[in-house]
Amino acid sequence: MFAYIIKRLLWLIPVVIGVSLILFGIMQLVPGNPAAIMLGTNITPEAVAALNEKFGFNEPFYVRYFLMLKNFLTGELDSIYYGDKVINIIGRRMTATIELGSLSLIIAVLIAIPTGVIAAVKKNSLFDLFSMFIATIGISVPAFFTGIIFIYLFSVYFQILPSSGYGGRFWTLSGLRHLILPAFSLSTVMIASTSRLTRSSMLDIMKEDYLVTARSKGVAEKIIILKHAFRNALIPIITNIGNQLAMMFGGAILIESVFAWPGVGRLAVKAVEFRDQPLVFGSILILSMLYVVVNLMVDIIYVFINPRISYK
Amino acid sequence: MKNKFLILLLLSLFLFSMFSAVQAQETERFVMGIEDEVSNLDPGETTISVNERVASLIFDGLVEYGEANKIVPGIAEDWTISEDGLEYTFNLREGVMFHNGQELTAADVEYTYNRILNPDYGSGLRAKIESIESIEVIDDYTIKFTLSEPYAPFILAMTFGIVPEEYAEEVGDDELGRNPIGAGPFKMEEWDAGNQIILSAFENHWNKVPNIKELVIRSIPESATQAMELRSGGIDFGVNLDVGQLESFTDNPDYQVKSAAGAGINFLGFNFEMEPTHERKFREAVLQAVPFDQIIPQIFGILGERAYSMLPPTIWPEEREFLKENAVGFDPQAAAQKFEELKADGVIPEDYVAQIYVSNSRPNQVKTAEAMVTALNQSGLKAEVNSMEFGTMWDMLGRGEIGMFFLRFVSDPDPDYWLYRFFKSPDEGGSLNRAFYSDEEVDQWLEEARAISDQAKREELYNKVLRKVLIEDLVFHPLAHSTQIYVMQDNVRELEPGNSLLIPLVTPTANVYKE
Amino acid sequence: MKNKIILFILLLIQIYVNYQNWIIEGRVWSSLEYKFATVFSIIVIISLLLLLFKNSIFLKFKENDLYAKTLKEFNKGYGGKIAVFILAFIFYAAFMAPFIAPYSPTEIDYSNMTYAAPSWNHWFGTDDFGRDMFSRVIYGARIALGVGFAAVLVNASLGVTLGLMAGYYGGKADMIIMRVVEIWNSIPFILLALAIISALGKGIFNIIIAVGVTGLINFSRLTRSIVLQIKEKEYVAAAKALGAGDLRILYYHILPNSISSLIVLATLRIGISILVVAGLSFLGLGIQPPTAAWGTMLNRGQEYLIQAPWMSIFPGLAIIITVLSFNLLGDALRDALDPRQLD
């Protein structure tokens, strides 16, 4: 197990190299000189030259790539727009992103799995039909649209939750209040898709022979469902959550924009907009690494649940 | 059972506090929504308007803008300008304090301006004070600037925020931008990057102690979100609302909507080095094809006023009448005919699609471009909107790759700032001349006008320039003067938008408070 | 009999639409969009006529075993049928837009550029330029479907090629290809699309490319796993023994066997692509105005959410209904085309 985790963590190395190459390549295609963009209407040739010199834009591209990668790894990368170390800028926003992501994930799991299980157990009941109908719509709604509707309903109409911004760490009251709407908006897609999958995999498992046998032996229905069926159904559910994470990482960027959430996703969008190459490089690389780490965590949970799979 | 009851009680308490209505905020705390994220508060690097907006609250300059953009004393009590317009001597007030308790002296002023003048520092403000030849500290409270040539708008550059020399030297430029210390009415308390900046009232300010004790500046880029925040009471004041949202506030008694004319000019420009925009006939046809007089008021609404001059309405309004009467009017038949002729002459190539470039952070310009494209298509010229980030567009403009473009320009109230850099030949100081327009006469007038201080003579020269570039040569077509619109809760007092982008929370005439 | 009456009514409607456009308005062949609409209406009329009077042609399909089985499975639930019905409607709107939209989607009445609530003349109201929202929503269907299909085509052809190569050649090639795809996938797709669009510039083709190259992992993983299953089958080994080339084996043996799973995935991906384009439009990188596109309209409507909610509700609903239909269709197809049955 330990060796497996180490091996998976080592995977981060090719990811960093690969993603950095891709990003650097795309950035070379992006038209526009960051120095000129930064100076805007106050542009003078000397100022452009000074900035170009400062950020090394005059070097050949391979030198720039290695410089950028080296600076990223040592934390020395400087943002053009913010005039600060990329690592500091990202560091200040990381908590907001992680809080939003984890709460959405928790909400999604806490709502989706019970809903799916109940829907499967009470197949064709009113609850089943209704929840699955909602879930099917849920996967079809753009997350940012959900966000706008939530703001309108809960902040403007009912005035019970703040409409945007970051209110502090999640354990403070104001922090949690600010977190609720974005977290729910972000989790809708995952709730919808996970509850549908939970239902269908529960239904598949409940048809299996050994459960029928258990039932005929007089094991209580509750125990059958929770102990046997659910445990086995979890495997595809976890796989699905792993797959959904990519969607969630993408959706988070839109949700952060809707709710003016000070996260890394919005920072990355801004960096692309301002052609702040070092910041684009740093922020997207960090998000990609985060994605790999979260996926690793999902895989580890997977191993715990499914001891039949052995990892060498 | 008892446990269950307790849990239920706690849970309901928790839920109650979670979802209780947004509390009314204390009157000494003022929350303000701005349109973008602040990146750096170094007053020497405030080329980005949000940075400037916030930095101006923390730093004070030698002089300030008073009512109607008149220059009034700031840290400098009074000043004298020598006969030849080359020497500016300022007398500073005594006892002006920085936030860290040090006194502001002439040495700090000297340091501030030398810092900006240093080419290695790369400040965008440098262009405004390039004419400085030397700075001389006469005593602790007297400083003299000597110019190499007379430059009428020089006094406007004296509004730059003064930084404390000792502190700036000690911590360096980067740190100054993050933990600014100035002599302005507010001092930095907390900066939660990307989210909000909290400032507090500076009790030892040389002029006024702000009524607002805690100022929260939140960056809310989505204007829809900002409107929602105003409605839900999350912010007291917002500056970034689009026309659509504004309409819903103007007739609502719970909000005040205030406007001030002329913070900037929106205009359409043509490239003089590209086919077919360098043909006057083509430019005229484009202007004739689009009913700007009809679409501008409907698109800009209260956010803008139809413009006929490049200068803001507060500067020399008489000339605007002449420019208005002589502007190219809407005439779709004539336009269609001209396009036909130009196509027949081969000036417009067979597969030509006119690209109208516009910055995507200016929703009104994007809409104008959209309506313009529709009108051009109807007149027989294929056209497309190309909206992109301002930075990229500006860079492309600089390389002369754009034929038709929308821009907005904001500057300080002197015609030189508005005209010189746009219409002076590119290689003779026209640093913003993205039309690549070059005319000897215009060059000469512009050069002459910046060197004299006689208002009447300057006016005459600038009017000549305007008539030549806007009417005769059709370099730019002014669209609208953007209006500054402030939307605030109804209990906010004394907050009146000024003519610049700066937010006048504490000025010689006002000190904002909440009832 | 009931079916025949419905078909007959549809035929009458279609003929009426064409009469109005062809004869009265004279819109037949003068522009590309009229050409599309004209060809499409002829196809619709012919197929309606055939269904009415020469039903026997379609019997051939019904006799096909596989088809009948699939159809039976497909008809089991309501979801698939509803989806087919709605999608047919959307496709019809997309192709026939210039014939059925009551107003031009772009033309502006310069004297009256303001929004108006839904009314008899403007079923979905008008937008802030006074343009008819109903017409714009209909025209928007073309962009949504066009970009959705094209992006998935790009996505599928890249993903399938990579998956085929990885699965078929195995070993080092497999490892390298799948690792690269995984690395590609670890970049959040919205940011990847954003970066690509800022590199290539805006415009429909660049959006298609940007959306098409994200999420490659779905197609390549699926194809690879199918290939790995089929590769061991006897007939592939036999073909190999007979000296069939790699390409031949891939084309004749492996691709046909993976097609049903691919169709299901593609259907689901179309929905996702439409959502991604809407998301990009929200960030201002979608289809450029004045072209009527749902995402762009939704983004614009946000500004007027309070005074003119119809400006966001109708394009929003159009997106939701279309994506929903593709999802329902995908689910139904998955049940109907269950690979285990086809084996």
* CATH superfamily heading of the largest domain in chain B: Periplasmic binding protein-like II
C-alpha-based Rg of chain C, rounded: 23 Å
Largest interface: chains, residues each: A-B, 55 and 55 residues
Give the beta-strand count of chain B: 19
The global form of chain C is globular
> What is the SS-derived class of chain C?
mainly alpha
- β-sheet strand percentage of chain B: 15-25%
Largest sheet of chain B: 11 strands, mixed
* Oligomer state of the chains in this structure: heterotrimer
CATH architecture of the largest domain in chain B: 3-Layer(aba) Sandwich
Describe, in plain words, how this protein is organized in 3D.
The complex is a heterotrimer of chains A (312), B (515) and C (343). Chain A is mostly helical and 312 residues long. Chain A is 77% helix and 0% strand. Chain A has 13 helices and no strands. In chain A, helix 2 (12-29) packs antiparallel against helix 13 and helix 11 packs parallel to helix 12 (264-273). Chain A is elongated and about 85 Å long. The model of chain A has no long low-confidence stretch (mean pLDDT 83). In chain B, the strands form four sheets. In chain B, strands 1, 8, 9, 10, 11, 12, 13, 14, 15, 16 and 17 form an eleven-stranded mixed beta sheet that branches. Chain B has a four-stranded antiparallel beta sheet with strand order 4-5-7-6, covered by helices on one side. Chain B has two domains: 31-253 and 489-512, D-Maltodextrin-Binding Protein, domain 2 (3-Layer(aba) Sandwich); 259-481, Dipeptide-binding Protein, Domain 3 (Dipeptide-binding Protein, domain 3, Roll), CATH 3.10.105. Chain C is an all-alpha fold. Chain C has two domains: 1-58; 133-342, MetI-like fold, CATH 1.10.3720. Chain C is globular and about 75 Å long. Chains in contact: A-B, A-C, B-C. At the B-C interface, helix 6, helix 7, helix 9, helix 12 and strand 15 of B face loops of C.
